[in-house]
Amino acid sequence: MKASVLLDDAISLPVEERAHLVDCLLQTLNPPDEAHAAAWAAVARRRLNELRAGSVAPIAGEEVFARI
User: Fold this and answer.
1) Are 11 and 18 in contact (CB under 8 A)?
2) Which domain holds residue 9?
3) What is the pLDDT of residues 1-27, one digit of tens each?
4) Do 27 and 42 sit in the same domain of this protein?
5) HEC states along 17-64?
6) Contact 58, 51 (CB under 8 A)
7) What is the largest CA-CA distance in the chain?
8) Could you report the per-residue pLDDT of 42-67, keeping only the tens digit for each?
9) CB 44 within 8 A of CB 55
10) Which run of H or of E encompasses 5?
């Protein structure tokens, strides 16, 4: 199959499926480091627990980018 045909098919997918496809393709070029992935997962779990416990307050993405 030609890349141009594949690209046309991919473009017609819903945005969530395109994002998943892009992520899968990028991982074939640069496989994730399992140690780093595990460390980031631990950070994400800790932050989620902090949000759920109410020990930190969420900030809207728009506000974060406005501050930057």
Assistant:
1) yes
2) 1-31
3) 799 999 999 999 999 999 999 999 998
4) no
5) HHHHHHHHHHHHHCCCCHHHHHHHHHHHHHHHHHHHHCCCCCCCHHHH
6) yes
7) 53
8) 999 999 999 999 999 999 999 999 99
9) no
10) helix 3-11
